[in-house]
Write a structure and sequence with these properties.
The chain is an all-alpha fold. It is built from four helices and no strands. Bound molecules: fe (ii) ion (2 copies). The site of one fe (ii) ion has 6 residues, from helix 3 and helix 4.
Amino acid sequence: MKFIEWNEEQLGKIKVIDEQHLSLADMLNQMHGLLGSDKNELVKNLLSKFCDDTKTHFDTEENLIKEYKFPNYFSHKMEHDRVLAQINKEKEVIISGGKMLTLEFLNSLRTWMFNHHELNDSKLCKFLAGQGVE
Ligand SMILES: [Fe+2]
Ligand SMILES: [Fe+2]
């Protein structure tokens, strides 16, 4: 069983957003598979890519929110900024060798992804679909 399963009902039918969510979930699964291994460089590279791609993904959503004038831009962006700061901080500590990747951290990301999707992204995707975005 996969650590995080991004299933059919979590797909918002907005291609770019769905692809990014699936790719981020896939990276979380890869990191989960590396927990406790001695492949430190691989973990660090993956975590760096995860941070970069998360930033790209948040920019994508924020640009779509602005472009289509979806309400609650600031509260959605605040959630993005909050988690991004948290991920980057953890990344810095891990990359500098201060600690190892932990299950606790991956669990918190998984929970955040599911909650954020349910409370924010799913509504955004529904709205965008209504605007004819595919
Ligand atoms: Fe979002
Ligand atoms: Fe998202």
